Amino acid sequence: MHPHRPIPPVVDPSRVIKGLRCKECGHFYEKSPIYVCEFDFGPLEVVYDYELLRGKLTREVIESRPKNLWRYRELLPVESEPEIGLYSGCTPLVHADRLAKRLGVEELYIKDDSCNHPTFSYKDRVVSVALSKAKEFGYKTVSCASTGNLGNSVSAHAARAGFETYIFVPAGLEIGKIVGSLVYHPTLVEVEGNYDDVNRFCSELGEKYRWAFVNINLRPYYTEGAKTYGFEVAEQLGWRLPQHIVVPVAGGTILPRVYRAFREFVTLGLVEDTKPRFHAAQAAGCSPIVTAIKERSEVFRPVKPNTIAKSIAIGNPADGYEVMDIVRKTGGWGEEATDEEIIDAIKLLAETEGIFTETAGGTTLAVAKKLIEQGVLPRDESIVVSITGNGMKTQEAVADHIGAPVRIQPNLASFEEVCLGALAGV
Ligand SMILES: *Cc1c(COP(=O)(O)O)cnc(C)c1O
Ligand SMILES: [Zn+2]
């Protein structure tokens, strides 16, 4: 099936997409390029008319479509025919039997965005939607505040779509994340400070320059793209929901959007509501949300990150309260992983399932392992572990922990002496 085949919507998108609503006070706004509520500065979210889609957006319609994230286009906030991200999404849901055995559980899946197109992380989903919207709004320049993967994804998609690009990252990222942006030739700006400083600075820039900051002024649309991760999990499980899903938390975009995806599928009658539980994963060196969950606190305290999991090192998460709310109301929990546990989990996933994830994925698997040991994830219930990024970008994290190649002369004697040591004399 050719991905360039258009995806005709079952209902005119301009009728389905109603407008924006403030997540704080509920105030409704007509469609326009605004992103915070004028009354309380609350974040806005896109409102859809699900009634128009019920019975029309069916399992069969979705299954007949090309394998990219636009197969769920009626539930995404783009009205024109999608042109950006035609190869993104539809990553594997791996039935992880060997890993399940090692962890002592019966039904375990890896949703593997380490191989997302084109920049190997879940960010290719949010960026596909945000840049499509940037195009609709007529922006010429796109930008973002990034911990690395978002910058990579904006750079690549923007190159193909012909935008001018400015990427802002905290200084000191992994070389793989730097090269992974620079190769697409954006203006890459390293800011002396941590991600939260970068984000604050970008908000300031956004007031002066008419640029599309994908995760700031396009945030209501950007976040919607993350729903496709959840839609795919439900479809790939055979149109059902898992009993548990473990999700990494940085700014707090993906966890609430996977929840929203599951809710929307329930609303449309595409899956049965089996009440999945959402569990949050953070690194011990940056765990404001998990700490609040474990302390059963109503508020979280922003922190200064110090962890090898740089892609999820956000000390003051924009959607932190939404994450806490969803974890609590679904009966989920949260855990954190030390740098050592992150490295061990990266190796475990590679050795059992042949998947090389980055430090964020190591964090999520390490947390899943802990939650299994604690009995929070019962051994006979279905579990999805969210792998969101690729290990080739964070090689520094494991390079000193995986041994080294053996070196030989190009002859049989040398090979047998060095590699078959014990066997050589037989
Ligand atoms: C951005 C990112 C996340 C999660 O970030 P949210 O802002 O919480 O959605 C997780 N894993 C990787 C690899 C990322 O790049
Ligand atoms: Zn409001």
Walk me through the structure.
The protein has a domain at 93-118 and 223-397: Rossmann fold, CATH 3.40.50. 37% of the residues lie in helices and 15% in strands. The protein is built from 17 helices and 13 strands. Strand 6 (141-145), helix 6 (149-161) and strand 7 form a beta-alpha-beta unit. Helix 4 crosses helix 14 (339-353). The protein starts with 12 loop residues before the first helix and ends in a 7-residue tail after the last helix. Pyridoxal-5'-phosphate (PLP) binds next to loops.
Which key phrases capture this entry?
globular; 426 residues; alpha/beta; binds zinc ion; Rossmann fold; binds pyridoxal-5'-phosphate; six-stranded mixed sheet
Set out the fold topology.
Elements: H1 13-16, E1 17-22, E2 28-29, E3 44-48, H2 50-53, H3 59-63, E4 93-95, H4 97-103, E5 107-112, H5 123-136, E6 141-145, H6 149-161, E7 164-170, H7 175-182, E8 187-191, H8 195-208, E9 212-213, H9 219-225, H10 227-236, E10 244-248, H11 254-267, E11 277-283, H12 288-294, H13 320-329, E12 334-337, H14 339-353, H15 359-373, E13 382-387, H16 395-398, H17 412-419
Parallel strand pairs: 5-13, 6-7, 6-9, 7-8, 10-11, 10-13, 11-12
Antiparallel strand pairs: 1-2, 1-3, 4-5
Helix pairs in contact: 4-14, 5-6, 5-9, 6-7, 10-11, 12-13, 14-15
The structure holds pyridoxal-5'-phosphate and zinc ion (ZN).
Strands, total number: 13
As a whole number of angstroms, the C-alpha radius of gyration is: 22 Å
- SS summary, helix count: 17
Rough shape? globular
Low-confidence stretches: none
Largest sheet: 6 strands, mixed
Q: Compute the average pLDDT.
A: 96
Residue share in helices? 25-40%
Beta-sheet strand percentage?
5-15%
